[in-house]
Specification:
Layout: H1 10-22, H2 27-39, H3 41-58, H4 71-75, H5 78-81
């Protein structure tokens, strides 16, 4: 991460620190979030997550609400039944 130095009058910084404290954050976090939004970083991350989510939905690899398979269901699949016995 890079450091950034800005010049702001003391009263503004004081008021910003108080408000940030009331909101449970910091001036540093607020400025970082603002710059990420301004630079489009947040939008790019959200778009990447949207693409991943859409790809996962289209993959049909989910449980479709059935939950996880039992051990017996896993080992009773054809691919597992035709497996040679013993260590690999």
């Amino acid at each position: 991460m890079a450091n950034l130095t800005i010049t702001v009058d003391e009263e503004t910084v004081k008021r910003a620190r108080i408000r940030a404290l009331e909101e449970g954050t910091s001036v540093n976090a607020l400025l970082r979030d603002y710059l990420e939004d301004y630079a489009g970083v947040r939008r790019e991350r959200m778009e990447a997550w949207r693409k991943i989510r859409d790809l996962a939905k289209r993959s049909e690899m989910g449980s479709r609400g059935r939950g996880l398979p039992t051990r017996e269901e896993i080992y009773n699949r054809p691919i597992m039944r035709n497996r040679p016995e013993g260590p690999l």
